[in-house]
Structure formats: C-alpha cells, structure tokens
Design a protein that fits this description.
Blueprint lengths: L8 H4 L9 E2 L1 E3 L2 E3 L6 E6 L4 E7 L3 H16 L8 H17 L1 H12 L3 H22 L4 E4 L5 E9 L2 E5 L5 H14 L3 E5 L6 H12 L7 E3 L4 H10 L5 E5 L2 H11 L5 E5 L5 E4 L5 H13 L11 E5 H15 L20 H17 L2 E4 L17 E4 L6 H4 L6 E7 L2 H9 L3 E2 L1 E5 L3 H10 L4 E4 L14 E2 L2 E2 L4 H6 L2 E9 L11
Parallel strand pairs: 1-5, 8-9, 8-11, 9-10, 11-12, 13-14, 13-19, 14-17, 16-17, 19-20
Antiparallel strand pairs: 2-3, 4-5, 6-7, 7-23, 12-22, 15-16, 18-21
Length: 508
Amino acid sequence: MHTVSRPDTATILRNVPRIGETVPMFVGGRWELAASGATRAIVNPADNRTIAQVADGDAADAARAIAAARRAFDDGPWTALAASDRAMLLFRLADAIDAAREEFVHIDTLNNGKPLRESEYDVIDAANCFRYYAGLATKPHGQTFDVPAPSQTFTVREPIGVCGQIVPWNYPLLMAVWKLAPALAAGNVCVLKPAETTPLSALRLATLIEALEFPPGVVNIVPGAGQTAGHELAASALVDKVAFTGGTVTGRSVMHAAAGNLKKISLELGGKSPNIVFADADFETAIDYALFGIYANAGQVCSAGSRLILQKSLHDRFVDRLVERAQKIRVGDGFDPRTEMGPLISPIQRERVENYLAIGREEGATLRCGGERLGGALADGNFLSPAIFDRTTPTMRIVQEEIFGPVLVVQAFDDEADAIRLANDSPYGLAGAVFTQDVAKAHRVIRKLRAGITWINTYHPTYNEAPWGGYKQSGIGRELGTYGYDAYTEVKQINVNLDVAPSGWFSP
C-alpha cells in the first residue's frame, strides 16, 4: 500500500501562534483568546483527527474587533497613509506569502484536505491578488465633468470604512485574500471571520501582517461561528460594509442583519451552473472539462459545473466515456502526490451529499457511478467517490438545488433554444459554459445565459483582473478586478465654484 508522505502537524503549524495550547485570534494588533475562553477543535478532513485548538470567538469578540477597527479607521494613521505607501505594504505582503508558499500550501491541505497541487494554485493566486490590488491602489479613481456652470466638478473614490468580511471553507486562504486585498488597497480597515472549520491559513496570514507592521486594528482575524461572530459583523452599526461568501440561505440572513444600519453589502452565493456541450464540440476536451468542472476541490466550488447539459445525439457516447474517466479519478489524502480529488470538508458535509444521492435515487434518476464512501486507509476520512446521475428531469431536487459535492447531474437537449431554456431554468446564475466549435453559436448561447461568469470551450479559469459574481440568487455585487475595488469605495461629488460671488437667489 502506498504510504502518504505527510509532514508532521507540528512542523506544518510551527509558525501559527499559540497562547498555551490554543491558537488565538488577532484583534487590534494583538493575539488574544476568546473572551469566553471557548476553543474549537480543528480537524484534518482526511482522517478527522484534531490538528489544533483555536480560540472560538463569539459576538463579544467580534464587537471587540469592530471597536479596534473603528479606532484604526477614525483615529489611526491608516486613512492618512498615501496610496503608494498602502501599495508598498501590499506588495511586501505578497512577497511574504511567496516566501512562505510551501508552508501555506501544507496548512490549507492539512486543514481543508484538498490536494497539494490545488493548494499551491490557491497560494500563488493569493499572492498575485495582493499584487494586483497594490498596483490598482495608485491608479486614477475619479472623473471630471463639464457642467453648465462656472464650476470645477469632479468625483473621488474614498474608503467605506470598517468592513466585516465572512469567508467559506473551500478556499481558506484565497477567499480571505479576495476580501482583504481590495478593501485594504482602497484604504478600508477589516474584520475578517474565516470559516470556523478552516481558520489556520488566515491566522498564519495575520502573522505576516503583524511582522510588516500594519497599523493596529487595520486587519483583525476573528475565528468563530457564523451565528455569533458572523452575525455581529453583519448587524453592528459600527460596521460600514459586510462582504459574505457562502450559501444562499446564510446570505439572506446576512442581508437581513445588515439592513439595521443600511450598510453596504457584497454577497457571493451559491450556484447550480450549467455546462452545455453541443454535438460538434471537441469530444475529449469537453470530457476533460466536464470532469474538471465538477470534481475540482471535490465539487465544493460555488461555480462548479454541476449540471452537464448534453445534446441528445452526443448523450450516450459522452456519458459512457465520462463514467469511464470518473471512475479512474484517484481519490485520497491531499498529501499523497497521486491524489486528484480529496475529501469533503466534514462528516456533516459528506452526510449532506449522501442525502442528495438518496434523493436522486428516490426521484428516479439513474446513478451511473460513484457516491460510495471509501474504505481501507481512507475509511476515517470524509471521502466519497465521484458520482454521476443520468436520466434526470428539470424539476428534480438534485437538478435544482446546490449539492456542493462531487455529484454531477446530466440533462439532455434537442437544439440551441432547448439548451438555453434548460440552462436558465434555475434560481441561480453564477456561472456557465458552452462547448462547441461553432464560434457564432457559442457567442449566441453565452449571450443568452443568465450568469455572471461564463466560459467558451473551457471551465473554471479565474483571473484577479476580471469580475467575479452572479445573477439572480447567486449574489449581489462583484469581487475581483476593478469592480472588486470599486465595491470597497464610496463615490464623493465635489463642486468648486469658479465665480465666487453672492448667488442673488434671495433679496438682500
């Protein structure tokens, strides 16, 4: 049996700070335990063994962090710092991530379970995201207007203020950086709540922020539950903006809580994204991306191509080949260099996916392969084999609801109009793809898709330079690119009278 060569946990976490046996939170430039003294066991999903005890923050801890951020924004040096100085700090932070790349890769694989090669892509992207926004910080961010008056009229973009940021467990470091980088570049201060199951890489990032001497309170990291710490970030009147990535149900709760002081919101929510394959597509390329679209990160991706929509003339041959390839995917411990797909994040998530597998069978769909727990050396982990459901109908729950696991559902269509109808028959609108060698048809279909992120003859590439977000119930606003920067700014209109004299509006 192949032996997994995994560095010991103590080595991987050697630079993650501790107070006693507990990894603390980072508040106001200091490392602190939870006010209640509560801790949470953090486990490796590949074997469900505890790897660390982390301070488990609640509403009181989030409030303390918000107060520190409020002081940093209102009274600290951060807002007076020149954009070039903020940019320099972000460039240095990117370099520090690069210098600790192997360490971050190991932390995310240990804490999330994803294969090393996926973690490495995430860490590289995280460093480059800081670089992108460091460069953007010093670029022009305003407009001037010709107005029918002797006035110099223009706009400037200013930071919003204190930003509460809540990120999920599927991309622990990268999602934290997607939130922090544009907010900091624009001059805001942040209270970040990582997912309660995967806080370790965000806390390691805080050590780099501390070492680079960011002013205290500019970045605060508070691990804890969404119902307590997360809710406080969404509800507090001292928070000017809340940004959330996660499930649609929780997104509604965040939106409701944020209404108290009408704070700005960004929501990047769920998806049930269509991947349309026409009969004239390059066959093996379409097969390859159909697999990558759903089984990357074990299907725990908001933009996963979880609905495969096949032209009927292609259907049987395509599904047969897809099943053959899916059954060859090497599922295992993320530290095993042979592993192509890792575990689900937790026993709860595995049971949720298994419940959908049962629902699919009950609804009459045909399970062509997968969906089994893996035994042997993997029996203690949260592993499921890649699953494919065929012979589905549009009203089935497995077709309409986000499963967030390695489960692909196949639909069949007759013609172009039918493909578009099936693709848009969803409450979600995050992503979608089209595979065809007919360029005109590809563009026609993409234009008709009600989705914010689309691809032609590929699936999943993400760029720091391009906006990320969805239509319908997939969220509000955009992250990344200039759109992500603008989402962390307020627009101020300034009018300068060039003819200084009384207006004469009222009688003297």
